[in-house]
Design goal:
- The structure holds two protein chains of two kinds.
- Chain A is α+β, with helices and mostly antiparallel strands.
- Chain A has two helices and three strands; from the N terminus they run H-H-E-E-E.
- A three-stranded antiparallel beta sheet of chain A has the order 1-2-3, covered by helices on one side.
- Chain A is elongated and about 60 Å long.
- Chain B has an eight-stranded mixed beta sheet with strand order 3-4-2-5-1-6-7-8, sandwiched between helices.
- In chain B, helix 1 (16-29) crosses helix 13.
- Chain B is globular, with a radius of gyration of 18 Å.
- Classes of the chains: A alpha+beta, B alpha/beta.
- Chains A and B meet through helix 1 and strand 1 of A and helix 11 of B.
């Protein structure tokens, strides 16, 4: 990351990254709440309006104590609805 | 139209994923638009090496099966904005990638990117043949070690037989990338030399990446070495290899890693 005498040691970073990752990977087959929310939010939106799937932007950031799920939907005005942004945090 | 490159080796653990990330990042840092694709279904790791493991929304299999759009599955790198990742799926179903689905994804990516870099799984099974299927160029990652050289020879045979180009009577442009090279050990006769490997495989050389502690450090941080420490010996070797891939004539040097020589003199630095 940076040169010099006081380089941050890298193993603790690796350890923390793996802990966060494995925490949710071990649940695969069980429930991944974030993925479930992602799918249900998209399903609800597409039930009410016809949206170009390319105009649905989903971002996930899995953290140690909380994860972020961000769903940005561009809803066309021609459907009488205002452009909406749905953001849900776990 | 972008170029499709497969990074392959036959043998596992020789540095395919590290090399995919490092070369992809080196090309992107020079303004090229790059997508790296993880073909290792069930055992994805390119996301981890790229530091994007927490940000996977959809994956390659979701796209192939039509559950997600390509644009929704691509993850943009946070450090280099022309670098994208298409992560593999963690499903245990090895047949989740279909030949038609992969062909469609490559066809969609090719006009949108300068480079489509396919990180092959180890082995010579379905995943590996799907990864090489549409390649214009192949990078065969080899360690100066007998089993790696033997497996590279098998892979070179497959590249000449099982690819789309081979079936059309054309040739995949093949390059050798020698990784984990220790010039000192090769000189002392403890390791196959560059000349040995080149003579046995008779494939042109793309680059020589020195064995280095910096590689592990980069993967611990989740950053391609060409981003996290571009002045290190392996990063410079990868940057040179990326320039050769673009067709530039860059003089080949056998890099000696100064830090590893120092660490030999003064003992290993504590991790």
């Amino acid at each position: 990351m940076r040169l010099g005498f006081f380089r941050r040691s890298s193993a603790p970073v690796a350890r923390e990254r793996l802990q966060i990752l494995l925490e949710f990977e071990r649940r695969i087959g069980g429930s991944d709440l974030i993925a479930l929310l992602r799918d249900e939010i998209i399903a609800v939106i597409t039930k009410h309006v016809t949206v170009d799937p390319e105009k649905i932007q989903v971002k996930i950031d899995r953290g140690k104590t909380a994860s972020m799920l961000e769903v940005d939907v561009e809803v066309p005005n021609s459907y009488g609805a205002l452009p909406a942004t749905v953001t849900e945090a776990m | 139209m972008g170029k499709v490159v497969v990074v392959t080796s036959g043998k596992g653990g020789v540095g395919k994923t590290t090399s995919t990330a490092a070369l992809g990042a080196a090309l992107a840092r020079n303004g090229q638009k790059v997508v790296v694709i993880d073909f290792d279904v069930g055992l994805r790791n390119l996301d981890l090496v790229m530091g994007a493991e927490r940000r996977v929304v959809f994956d390659f299999v979701n796209v192939v099966q039509g559950a997600a759009k390509l644009s929704q599955a691509l993850i943009r790198d946070k450090r280099v904005e022309t670098l994208f990742l298409l992560p593999a799926s963690q499903t245990r179903d090895k047949d989740a990638l279909t030949e038609d689905g992969v062909a469609r994804v490559i066809r969609d990516l090719r006009p949108k990117f300068d480079w489509v870099i396919c990180d092959s799984p180890a082995g010579i099974e379905r995943g590996a043949t799907l990864a090489m299927r549409h390649a214009d160029t192949a990078i065969v990652v080899t360690n100066p070690e007998v089993s790696s050289v033997r497996d590279s020879d098998r892979i070179i045979g497959l590249l000449d037989a099982k690819t789309e180009k081979a079936e059309k009577g054309e040739r995949v442009d093949k390059h050798l990338l020698l990784t984990r090279y220790d010039a000192g050990r090769a000189a002392r006769g403890e390791m196959l030399t560059l000349e040995d490997v080149l003579e046995i495989l008779s494939t042109p050389l793309l680059g020589i990446i020195p064995e280095s502690e910096e590689i592990l450090r980069a993967s611990n941080f989740g950053s391609p070495i060409t981003i996290s420490n571009p002045s290190s010996a392996p990063a410079r070797a990868y940057a040179d290899a990326a320039r050769r891939l673009r067709g530039e004539a860059v003089e080949m040097s056998i890099p000696g890693d100064k830090r590893s020589i120092l660490s030999k003199l003064f003992g290993r630095r504590a991790a």
